[in-house]
Structure formats: structure tokens, C-alpha cells
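User: Predict the structure for this protein chain, please.
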Amino acid sequence: MSTTYPEDEVAPLTDSETQTAEAVDAESVDVSDAEAPQETESQPVVNPCPQCGTGRDNYPVCRACGWYELINSYVEIDAQMEFGDGQMDQPQPFRVPYWAYGLGGILCLIFVESIVAAVILPLNHPHRMIWSVVQLFFGLIAVVAGQLRAAFLSTMDNADAELNDCIMHPIKVWSAVTKRLPKTVSWLALGSGGLLAVVMSLFVIRSIPYDKIWETDGPPPKVKDKLVGAIADAAKEAESDMTMEEAMNELADKAVPEEEEEEEEILRETLDGVILGFYQTTSEDGQEGMISSVLIGTVVDGKLAIFGTVGLGLDEVRDDLTKKLFSIIRPTPFVPSDASATWVEPKILCQISYKPDKKGNVTEMRFEKFYK
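Assistant: Here is the predicted structure, written as C-alpha cells:
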């Protein structure tokens, strides 16, 4: 049975409707509480920027506007600092630049190839000499090119710098190269690699024949002066009591060789002298032929005397020597001698080698060369 209520009166809620209404009110309260703004206490700004007021924490530069208070100016800030990811606060570990690996590889390659050449090839081997000369040549070119480039860059940085600074200040000019790294790493590799190549060629491979490079076509000055002086003195003397045999024996005891080999196992010694005469071969029909041996004179006690006769070693120079000797023939010996030789003017200086025996006598004489 239902109860009827007037239109202006509200019917009372049943128990189930009352519980449903209370649940809806509770949900609306939770939603309103969640949507309501939470009141928080304001945090103080740490080290605020004087320009924009943004906190700078421990940075000297404002990451918001770029204000640098120490220089009283704005500066450009990078993205890492601008976004404030916190990585700038941590100390960055040292890392070798990528270009340094390439530079080190080039220097190591030059070092290793020089060591290989010094170990594999014998000291006096011609291939080792060629290797050393070629490496020295290209090393010098690389050093000069690098120095000129460094001097040019130095003039761009300093108006007072000049190109001759690459000679006057060879190390200082490289500061212009190093501060432009890695763009100038190729020039740094060229200069440093060339310098290392020169050093390794001179002090590690060291097979350049300096004696051949600086050798002059003539005896050493001191030896030449002694020979020329002895020849002049002999020209003034009309007679001499010294025979060829006496001169040979005396010179074997007193003559000092020009050079002595450093190694003990090499016993041959060299001596500079002058050709005073020669012997010729005789054919079957009695005609004189080629030169078979020459008489060598040298200085003994300040005087020119005959040292001996040398025939070994003439094959290589026989033709040239024959032409020269036949053009300076004289009728009498320049130094008194009983030898039946063809005498010449003392104008051709030469070098011979010999081997002294235990008694000091001269053996195994050999003609080495004549000075043109």
C-alpha cells in the first residue's frame, strides 16, 4: 500500500537511498580535496642572479640569462649548463684527445722502422746507407715545412712576429700551432715526425758515409805540406848519400802512417807519397809497354827519400796513370838513386798501403790511389 504526499512536500528517503546518497557525498569530498591547490611553504632562492633572480647554486654564471657577475657582462652558455642536468657539478675525468692517438701512431711508426733498419742491416751495408740518407732527406724537408707553417701562423697572432722567427725562435713559433689543435694536428705531425726521422737517421741508423761526403781529392793538408816541403828541399840539394835501399829501411822504421785503423785486427797501414819514377813491361820485340810498377817517395827526417816500388793495385788506374807519367818524364832522378827506372817530375801525389812485419820491415805494399 503506497502513501500519497502533496506536491509541495518531499517524500522521506528509504534506508537504501540514504546509504547511496552518503557514498556519493563522500566521493565528491575526496575529489574536491584532490583538486584543491595545496598550500606549500616557499623555498628561499640560493645565490640569486642579480639580473633575473634565478638561483645560480654554486655556478658563477646564471644558467637562465647568462649573466657573469665577475666580468659584469653576459656570456654565452652551453646547453648542458642551460638545462641544468647536474653533470657540470661533477669533476670530468681526463680523456686523451682523439687526435693524439694518430700523432702517437705516426711517431711510433718512425721509431720502429728506424730500429728495424739498425738491427737487420749491417752498419756498412749500402742498403742501410740508402735508408739513412733517404730518411734524413725527407725528415729535413718535413721539419722545414713545419717550421715555415708555424712561423706563418705566428705572424697571424702577433703583428711583430716575422717568418725568420722559425730560425731565431724555433720552439716559440709552435705555440701558434698547438693552440689551434685539433685543426693543425697535421702540421704538428709533420714537424714532430720529421724531427724524429732526422734524429733516428743520425744517431740510430747512422750509416751515412761522412768520410766519403767530405773527402777531397788530395792528401790531408799536413801530409801535403810535408811532401811539398821535402820536394823543395830535395830540389836544392845537388847530391845525397842516401841510396834507395837505405831510404826504404830507414823509412820503414821511422815513417808514421797517415791513418791507423782503430780495430786491432786490421794491420795494414796507409802512407801518402809522391811518384818519382816507374818501370815498364818489355815485349818480345824489345818494345816498352805498359807501366808495371812505380817508385814511391816520401818524407824521412824532413827529407824526400825513396820508399819503395809498388806494382800491386795499379790495374784500376794504369791507363790514366800512364798518360800522366809519360807527360812529365825527366832524364835524371829527382832524388839520387841507382835504380834503372824511368824518372818523372814529383808532381803526382798518391796513397799506398802496406803491412809491417814483426821486425818492422815493409811487406805487401799496394797502390791505393793517386790524387788528380
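Residues 147 and 166 are 5 Å apart (CA to CA).
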